[in-house]
Every structure is written in C-alpha cells, then in structure tokens.
Amino acid sequence: MTRKLTDWINAPAQLMAKLPEDVIALITRFGVAAIFFSSARTKVDGLLHISDGTYVLFEQEYALPLIPPHAAAVAATVSEHLFSILLVLGLFTRYSALAFLGMTAVIEIFVYPDAWPTHLSWAGLLIYLIGRGGGAYSLDRRLGLI
Questions:
Q1: How far apart are CA 119 and CA 107, in angstroms?
Q2: Angle between helices 21-41 and 116-132 (to 10 degrees)
Q3: pLDDT tens digits for 105-124?
Q4: Which of 105, 114, 129, 138 could form a disulfide with 134 if both were Cys (CB 3.0 to 4.6 A apart)?
Q5: Is the pTM of this model over 0.85?
Q6: H or E segment at 47?
C-alpha cells in the first residue's frame, strides 16, 4: 500500500485514539445503565410497583432454578433499577457492573442461551467497567474509591 492510502485508512483510528478513556467510561456506564434500566421499567407499573405480568414472566418463561419466581422477580427488578442508577452516578461502578455481569450470566445460562451475541456485547461493556472503573466523571473518583 502506498503511504497516502495507509494514512487515509488509519486517520479515523488515530482520531478515535485521542478520545479520552474517561469519556469512554462515561459513555459505557450510561449505555449499560440504559439497557438494564429500560428492562427494569418494563417490570413495573407506576414508579416501582412490580406488575402482575412480571411475576407471571418469572414463573412461566424464566423459571430459574434454585430461586422462587417471586423472589427472582423482586430481586431482578430492584437490582436493575438500583445498579442502573449507581452506574449513571458512577458510584460503586465496579460492583454494579459485576452485579449486572452476574445477571447477564444467569440470563444467558438459564433463560435465553440463544441470545449469546447480545449478552456477549453486554459482557464486554461490563468487563471494561469492572476492570477500569467509572473514570474521572464518576462519584467513585470524587470519593477516592477505586
């Protein structure tokens, strides 16, 4: 390849390499939070009342082993709301991401094993946050948390 062609091909990558990692962390936190918060909102009526349909969903479609459906519905709904908010704030980012990674694994293994491409993309974002934290624009950083 000629030098001009490789320069042209590499230009977008060089431009993106200048994007601060803290901005990437912020975007990643908000993106993951949006995924799980949207899911949480489908499980409730009003502010935080878990809908009857959610309980039916956990009883009939999800049918997780080892945990009663009612408890699973409550745990999933509360977790999706709580950890999404924490991710947006950048508070306890690594632990929130770890909780979502666990939820993703449960969903992948027991509920929708064929949805692995979606779950793998979530896992990639979550592993980034677990490994790197919330970045400079997070409460973790302001509070001196790693």
A1: 8
A2: 130
A3: 999 999 999 999 999 999 99
A4: 138
A5: yes
A6: none
